[in-house]
């Protein structure tokens, strides 16, 4: 039957949907960097906003990249109840 093809299609689409969500940006902007000198740069703590907890964003800081509280949150995204339908094809 079609069952093996359905599994193949779902296996192909699943990584794309997860990767796409991780590249999106959270609401707000990174705070301005403080004017300071660094004696040593830190290893980056994140690569995208989705690696940061809650509303924090992955931002450049004085001595590296880390999760920081955003500023200028104008257009917050309201989470709606329920689940999106599964689309085939």
UniProtKB/TrEMBL annotation:
SMART domains: WAP
Major subcellular location class: secreted
Signal peptide from the UniProt entry: 1-20
Location in the cell: Secreted
A GO term for molecular function: serine-type endopeptidase inhibitor activity
UniProt cross-references to InterPro entries, sorted A to Z: Elafin-like_sf, WAP_dom, WAP_four-disulfide_core
Cellular component GO terms held in the UniProt record: extracellular space
Domain WAP, chain residue ranges per copy: 23-71
Biological process (GO), any one: innate immune response
Keywords for the protein's UniProt record, in alphabetical order: Antibiotic, Antimicrobial, Disulfide bond, Protease inhibitor, Secreted, Signal
Annotated protein name in UniProt: WAP domain-containing protein
Taxonomic lineage: Eukaryota, Metazoa, Chordata, Craniata, Vertebrata
């Amino acid at each position: 039957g079609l069952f093996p093809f359905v599994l193949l299609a779902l296996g192909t689409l699943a990584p794309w949907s997860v990767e796409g969500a991780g590249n999106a940006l959270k609401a707000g902007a990174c705070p301005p960097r403080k004017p300071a000198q660094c004696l040593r740069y830190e290893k980056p703590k994140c690569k995208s906003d989705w690696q940061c907890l809650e509303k924090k964003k992955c931002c450049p800081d004085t001595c590296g990249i880390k999760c920081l509280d955003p500023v200028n949150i104008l257009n917050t995204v309201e989470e709606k109840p329920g689940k999106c339908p599964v689309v085939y094809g």
